[in-house]
Design brief:
This protein is of the alpha+beta class and 566 residues long. It folds into two domains: 4-68, no CATH class; 155-564, Cytochrome P450 (Cytochrome p450), CATH 1.10.630.10. It has helices spanning 35-40, 51-66, 70-88, 109-131, 153-156, 174-177, 180-184, 187-196, 200-218, 230-246, 255-276, 283-286, 291-320, 333-340, 348-379, 384-397, 404-407, 412-424, 458-462, 478-486, 514-531, and strands at residues 4-8, 15-19, 24-28, 136-139, 144-148, 164-165, 226-228, 433-436, 440-441, 447-448, 453-456, 532-535, 545-548, 551-554, 560-564. A hairpin with a 4-residue loop joins strand 2 (15-19) and strand 3 (24-28). The structure holds protoporphyrin IX containing FE.
């Protein structure tokens, strides 16, 4: 039988394991002495354990270890590693803030962290209810998160990114998901803030061209009621529209890029989620065992293959300016990034990774927003007609031209519906999230040590009766009424962060793509409402949301029935 040996102990004690293909055989030396007695000799424990007890404990331990297979043994070592590093790792928190989520004071932290994976909603909700106006701390595998009450938001938002960083608080385990570049430079943020948002309606019109192209391809066109995967359809449409504004033609028609941009987010999320379950010291090993990380690498290779020629083309176009052979090109965000990026940012691997990161931020969040609105409409079908009528009226007013500048602010009821749908289905339960880069003391003396993870319970704030009266009721015209009753027509709109609605984050670091997202969502929903009818399949109702830590998803198995409008 083939055996291998692992040396155990501290040299003075020669003990070794014989490992064969199935089970572990322990041969401890010295043979007659006991491993425990060797271990404990000259230690104070010997006062409490006589020789007989030590031998008994040793024989139980030896028997147990002998019964293990090699892989079980490694598994146990692995779990023990995780367990102890959870206990020993340094996890800064707001000073004096209580931990929340324990069932009893004897419950091991590892159990609380494990419960958080699927049960974050209940843990955050009960913490918010209990502590509301004071900070409390929740425990995730990889970190503790100090949840701040909203009274601190005005103060927090004034801190610059160098002191309270949103990007450093992202849960992407950057080193192993190739996203360190997001921390090193904010080109992806600047392009959205300085180019996309100031030219919002121009880019929405550009995106609309791609919507029209993709419509007959991605959206089923059934004459009779047909079951469809609406989430998949929406992802594809949004991926096209994003590709159009970021990369332009022909990349926006390249099936390989569209698939890659959708898959990248899934692989990134799955990789980061897996890694967060293990302590950082295990990441160099575990990262190699996570299959989605290999897919992520493949996605990045594809991104480089597709984006490389686009970058070359832009360089050539720049060189041709003012010559007789001037090269024409699309007005893309990639071009802006190249024109405004430094040498490092303009290197192909970095640019390709950054474009991929932008798809991560934009595609799934937006497509989930549309799918959720359709799920809510089917659950409350009386709202189909008012929203549809609004679209028809706006079309009539804008003489069917539907330029974004004109229709975007007019779809007020749809806007209000989205705000309510997002209240019930936030993409994340904790927003904004920040990492304290330095020690901070707030005006009331609250101390936030460097390294503390901070967040607000956005979903709980939105569902607080003091913010949203009768929060259990799905009342999609809440923000519409609020705006018209108070005359604050430019407030309470979707995508406008305020202290009571943190769905897109808060302050200067709030989502830089939010206005584009809202525009895209309205554009797609308007056309769906004009052309189709929707309902749930027989016997089905609104699908429940899924939770993974604080992230929220619609059930991926959920289906809708659709047919062309009659
Ligand atoms: C319904 C759709 C969307 C939702 C709910 C959403 C939500 C968010 C939230 C909550 C944040 C964190 C903000 C903070 O920490 O204060 C964020 C960040 C971000 N979002 Fe969005 N987002 C959406 C769509 C988009 C789109 C369409 C884009 C791009 C066009 C985009 C680009 C980004 C980027 C780049 C960041 C990270 C900024 C940074 O590096 O700090 N998002 N988003």
């Amino acid at each position: 039988m083939e055996t291998s040996r692992l040396l155990f102990g501290d040299g003075s004690m020669l003990s070794y394991l014989h490992l064969n293909s199935s089970h572990i055989n322990l041969n401890f030396l010295p043979k007659n002495g006991s491993i425990l007695s060797s271990l404990y000799q000259n230690r104070p424990y010997t006062q409490f354990l006589d020789q007989e007890n030590l031998i008994l404990i040793e024989s139980i331990a030896t028997g147990f270890l002998n019964s293990l297979t090699y892989s079980q043994f490694i598994g146990i070592l692995f779990c023990a590693g995780i367990f102890f590093s959870q206990i020993l790792s340094k996890r800064p928190k707001v000073v004096n803030a209580p931990y929340h989520g324990y069932r009893s004071r004897f419950e091991p932290t590892f159990f609380v962290q494990s419960r958080y994976v699927l049960n974050a909603k209940n843990i955050i909700a009960s913490g918010y209810k209990k502590y509301k106006d004071t900070p409390f701390v929740i425990r995730r595998y990889d970190t503790d998160i100090s949840v701040l009450p909203k009274k601190y938001l005005d103060e927090i938002r004034l801190y610059p990114v160098a002191k309270l960083s949103g990007v450093k608080a992202q849960n992407l385990v950057n080193k192993y998901t190739y996203t360190t570049l997001m921390i090193e430079s904010n080109l992806h943020f600047r392009v959205l803030q300085n180019k996309l948002t100031p030219n919002l309606t121009t880019y929405l019109d550009i995106a609309k061209e791609e919507l029209e192209y993709g419509w007959p391809i991605d959206v089923a066109q059934p004459e009779e009621w047909t079951e469809v995967d609406i989430q998949d359809m929406m992802r594809m449409l949004v991926a096209r529209m994003s590709a159009k504004i970021f990369l332009g033609y022909p990349a926006c028609r390249d099936e390989e890029w569209l698939r890659t941009s959708i898959d990248f987010s899934i692989n990134m999320f799955a990789t980061a989620f897996m890694l967060r379950m293990f302590p950082p010291w295990m990441h160099p090993v575990v990262a190699h065992l996570v299959p989605t990380r290999y897919r992520l690498k493949k996605n990045l290779r594809t991104a480089r293959k597709i984006i490389g020629p686009l970058m070359e083309k832009h360089q050539k176009a720049l060189a041709s300016k003012g010559t007789d052979d001037e090269i024409e090109e699309d007005d893309t965000l990639l071009n802006w990034m190249m024109d405004n990026g430094n040498e490092k940012e303009n290197k192909l691997p970095e640019m390709a990774a950054r474009q991929s990161v932008l798809t991560l931020a934009s595609i799934h969040t937006t497509s989930m927003g549309i799918a959720n609105m359709l799920f809510d409409l089917c659950a409350h079908p009386k709202w189909f007609e008012p929203l549809r009528q609004e679209v028809i009226e706006v079309l009539a007013e804008t003489k069917g031209q539907m330029k974004a500048k004109e229709w975007l602010p007019r779809l007020e009821k749809m806007d209000s519906f989205f705000v309510e749908s997002q209240r019930f289905n936030p993409p994340i339960l904790l927003a904004p999230q920040r990492l304290a880069v330095v020690d901070i003391t707030l005006k009331d003396g609250t101390r936030i040590p460097k390294g503390t993870r901070l967040a607000c319970a956005n979903s709980e704030i939105l569902n607080d009766p003091s913010v949203t009266p009768n929060p259990e009721a799905f009342d999609p015209m809440r923000s519409y009424r609020k705006r018209h009753e108070t005359g604050e027509l430019n407030k309470h709109l979707a995508g406008q962060p305020d202290k009571d609605n943190l769905s897109f984050g808060h302050g200067k670091q709030a989502c830089p793509g939010r206005y584009f997202a809202v525009g895209e969502i309205k554009m797609i929903l308007a056309r769906l409402l004009l052309e189709f009818e929707f309902k749930y399949p027989e016997g089905k109702s609104r699908p429940k949301n899924f939770y993974a830590d604080e992230n929220v998803f619609p059930d991926p198995r959920a289906r809708l029935m659709m047919r062309k409008r009659r």
